[in-house]
Amino acid sequence: MTNPWDDWDHVLKVDPDKDLRPGETFEDVCRTGTDAIEIGGTLDVTAEKMTRVVDAAAEYDVPLYQEPSNPGVVIDSPSLDGYLIPTVFNAGGPFWITGAHKEWVRIDDLDWSRTHTEAYIVMNPEASVAQLTEADCDLSADDVGAYAKVAERMFGQEIVYVEYSGTFGDTEKVAAAHDALDDATLFYGGGIHDYESANEMAAHSDVIVVGDLLHDEGVDAVRETVKGAQDA
Ligand SMILES: CC(C)=CCC/C(C)=C/CC/C(C)=C/CC/C(C)=C/COP(=O)(O)OP(=O)(O)O
Ligand SMILES: O=P(O)(O)OC[C@@H](O)CO
Ligand SMILES: [Mg+2]
Fold first, then answer.
1. Contact 70, 44 (CB under 8 A)
2. Which residues bind Mg(2+) per the record (predicted)?
3. Are 195 and 225 in contact (CB under 8 A)?
4. What is the pTM of this model?
């Protein structure tokens, strides 16, 4: 089976709770050359903030995916290409593994054809996502590879996401996840801030995800990371 992300090198993650740089617009964001925009963040995201970003980006060509951090922020919009639904494999308890998902399916009427699975392995203990989900980030490369294989082989996850949100990761651990996968696509995110860092992590993963750089530095810096990913 083919998936849109089979051909991606670069995803830009827009946090609906954060502003763009002064003078920059969503048109600029959509013209960075990124392969897709993923809309989501851990803290202080609401359906209203999500809608604002989706509506602002809808008229441009780039694929738009929502990445909800809880069932309450999922929005129903024809402008979305799909939903990337996290499951935190190394979470401290079941809520972020199956509990939130059970609640979502109970209260909502899902469009399964646009709903896709993302197995998170959360690696930076300082990140809000690690704190919220009480993730066990004390993992060796072997642990990371094993989680990736479990996600793909036993839980049928379409995407495995090694998440270092806010810090540049350990390439050996990212490579261990990459080596473990045959079918699932490996996303890497965390601390990518220029051509070099993008190029380096792109060599150890299938798709790199760039987040805070957009909000902190702006679209020109993001464009450099797109080049770094494409050249890897
Ligand atoms: C079942 C549904 C619809 C939702 C639950 C989905 C799950 C398990 C979410 C838990 C993990 C999570 C909060 C993912 C959100 C995406 C993410 C990691 C965004 C990056 O967040 P950070 O960069 O750490 O946070 P801030 O930038 O907001 O501080
Ligand atoms: O914000 P950064 O550190 O680029 O991380 C990107 C993404 O993996 C966050 O979910
Ligand atoms: Mg962030």
1. no
2. 15, 42
3. yes
4. 0.98
Take atom 4 of ligand 2 and give the residue whose Cα is closest: 211
CA 18 to chain centre: 16
Number of neighbours of residue 175 by Cβ within 10 angstroms = 20
Given this model, what pLDDT does residue 1 score? 72
Q: What is the pLDDT of residues 91-139, one digit of tens each?
A: 999 999 999 999 999 999 999 999 999 999 999 999 999 999 999 999 9
Domain count, the chain: 1
- Select from 206, 204, 209, 205 the least CA-distant residue to 222: 209
Domain with 79 in it: what CATH number? 3.20.20.390
pLDDT tens profile 8-17: 999 999 999 9
Residue type at 77 in one-letter notation = S
* Closest CA to ligand 1's atom 15: 69
Distances 174 to 90, 110, 123 between C-alpha atoms, Å: 15, 32, 10
162 annotated among ligand-binding-site residues: yes
Residue 34: give the domain boundaries.
Answer: 4-231
For the chain, the average pLDDT equals 97
Phi and psi torsions of 40, nearest 5°: 175, 165
Dihedral-angle region of residue 190 (phi above 0 means left; psi in -120 to 50 means alpha; beta otherwise):
left
